[in-house]
TrEMBL record:
It comes from Aquimarina algiphila. Keywords: Membrane, Transmembrane, Transmembrane helix. The chain crosses the membrane at residues 7-24, 44-62, 74-91, 97-115. It comes from the Bacteria. This is DUF4345 domain-containing protein.
């Protein structure tokens, strides 16, 4: 499951970088993600903390090679994708579409890693 494990590096990088930037320079993150809304600094900082916490868990999954959780990371990100899509339809903010694509890139990388690992097993 080495390819699947390595695919988690994308999520780790995105979560850590986004989390740190949301703490230090949240306006940069929201402009990069095409947000049409201004968010309170406190909310952006809290989101940064949550990203860092989730990033820490994914880092631990990567470090300790918790293979039983690899497939769950796909399901969790699909849930986040559906939530992002729903929020876009409610608020019509392109931020959620950009976020959706960032999440789906990670899902695609992990699925490709799983496929590659399954081919190697055979």
């Amino acid at each position: 499951m080495e390819h699947t494990r390595l695919s988690l590096l994308y999520s780790i990088a995105v979560l850590w970088i986004s989390g740190l930037l949301l703490l230090v320079k949240p306006s940069l993150v929201f402009s990069f993600l095409n947000s049409s809304t201004t968010y309170p600094l406190e909310l952006a900082n809290l989101l940064g903390v949550l990203f860092l916490i989730i990033g820490s868990f994914i880092t631990l999954i990567f470090k300790y090679k918790v293979e039983k959780i690899y497939k769950w990371t796909i399901l969790i990100r699909i849930f986040f994708s559906l939530c992002s899509l729903g929020l876009y339809f409610v608020y019509h903010n392109s931020f959620f579409v950009t976020l959706l694509f960032m999440i789906l890139i990670g899902v695609l990388i992990t699925v490709l890693g799983l496929v590659k690992d399954q081919e190697i097993k055979k």
